[in-house]
């Protein structure tokens, strides 16, 4: 869900417009002065609320992704598993957005100032595209991994699966970073600042409309649709497997109670983790669909509201996803406590 265009410094843009209009058109009556003052205060409150929400998402995202990375670190290299590598990679991908995009934007909003340049826009959009593309692919790999683990637990008695092989996982992640770089590096050359002092927006300026359509189509197919198909397939199969397993448990509940058979703890942990994968997939699909609609809308009409909503959708995903995964693998608490 890469940002098609990124708005920065939004905290002061609207209030600056109001204040400038107040200077240009001095009200003649006391009533007009009061109305203008109220409008100015309302705009300030709205901008403060918007910035506070953005700051909350930024802080929660940094905390959650950092915690996901730390809790996924094994005690020794010999204990490193595929899930650890996938979660660490997801945390790293999301932290790039949190620290390189969301944090500077949030600080700029509260400080009521920001330095805008072509170089900054290039770094901003490069970081955003790199992080979000890598995050999408990692989410797909995690979904496929837990689909294999759950199906293997049910059908093959918990036998090792392909994605238990660290070499395969590392190769997949390396390929995803290569694809992410392919779509991110061009932003250093197409990023532009609109040059408007009251509308601080980083935009993408392609040489020709045809090149823009080609780039967008390739990114949509390779970095969005393909991972979405994988995530949807894995999640659908996980749901089917969970439903079948639940049905079998209900059918044999009386027999299990009579024989006093204890449930397999490993199987229960896998089911819990698989449910968290389905929850993340649901969040991802909702965010992806909303982002796609906003991106199509932005293609027809430049809208600051659409840009802000796009940023909000991306921040929502990177904020909540690490906590869902941590809850699923029972690592949300502190092991030292």
UniProtKB/TrEMBL annotation:
Lipid metabolism recorded as keyword: no
InterPro entries named among the record's database cross-references: GPCR_Rhodpsn, GPCR_Rhodpsn_7TM
Pfam families (alphabetical): 7tm_1
Domain G-protein coupled receptors family 1 profile: 64-325
Domain of life: Eukaryota
UniProt keyword Membrane present: yes
Transmembrane segments: 168-190, 217-243, 277-297, 303-325
Compartments reported by the entry: Membrane
Recorded topology in the membrane: Multi-pass membrane protein
Record's keyword terms, sorted: G-protein coupled receptor, Membrane, Receptor, Transducer, Transmembrane, Transmembrane helix
Recorded GO MF terms: G protein-coupled receptor activity
GO cellular component: plasma membrane
Protein's UniProt name: G-protein coupled receptors family 1 profile domain-containing protein
């Amino acid at each position: 869900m890469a940002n098609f265009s990124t708005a920065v410094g939004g905290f002061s843009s609207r209030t600056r417009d109001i204040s400038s209009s107040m200077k240009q058109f001095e009200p003649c009556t006391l009533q007009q002065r009061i109305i203008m003052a109220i409008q100015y205060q309302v705009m300030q409150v709205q901008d403060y609320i918007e910035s506070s929400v953005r700051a909350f998402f930024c802080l929660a995202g940094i905390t959650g992704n950092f915690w996901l990375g730390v809790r996924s670190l094994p005690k020794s290299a010999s204990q490193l598993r595929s899930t650890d590598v996938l979660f660490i990679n997801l945390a790293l991908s999301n932290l790039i957005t949190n620290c390189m995009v969301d944090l500077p934007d949030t600080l700029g909003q509260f400080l009521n100032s920001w330095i805008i340049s072509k170089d900054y826009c290039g770094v901003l959009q490069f970081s955003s595209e790199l992080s979000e593309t890598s995050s999408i692919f990692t989410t797909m790999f995690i979904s496929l991994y837990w689909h294999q683990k759950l199906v293997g637990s049910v059908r093959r008695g918990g036998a090792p699966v392909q994605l238990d092989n660290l070499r395969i996982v590392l190769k997949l992640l390396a390929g995803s970073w290569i694809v992410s770089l392919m779509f991110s590096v061009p932003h250093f050359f197409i990023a532009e600042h609109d040059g408007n002092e009251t509308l601080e927006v980083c935009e993408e300026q392609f040489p020709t409309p045809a090149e823009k359509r080609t780039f967008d189509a390739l990114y949509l197919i390779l970095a969005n649709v393909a991972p979405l198909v994988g995530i949807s397939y894995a999640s659908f199969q996980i749901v089917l497997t969970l439903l079948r397993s639940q049905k079998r448990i209900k059918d044999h509940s009386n027999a299990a109670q009579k024989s006093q058979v204890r449930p397999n703890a490993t199987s229960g942990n896998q089911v819990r983790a698989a449910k968290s994968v389905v929850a993340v997939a649901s969040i991802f699909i909702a965010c992806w669909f909303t982002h796609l609609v906003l991106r199509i809308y932005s293609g027809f009409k430049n809208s600051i509201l659409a840009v802000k909503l796009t940023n909000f959708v991306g921040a929502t995903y990177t904020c909540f996803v690490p906590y869902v995964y941590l809850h699923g693998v029972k690592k949300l608490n502190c092991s030292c406590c």
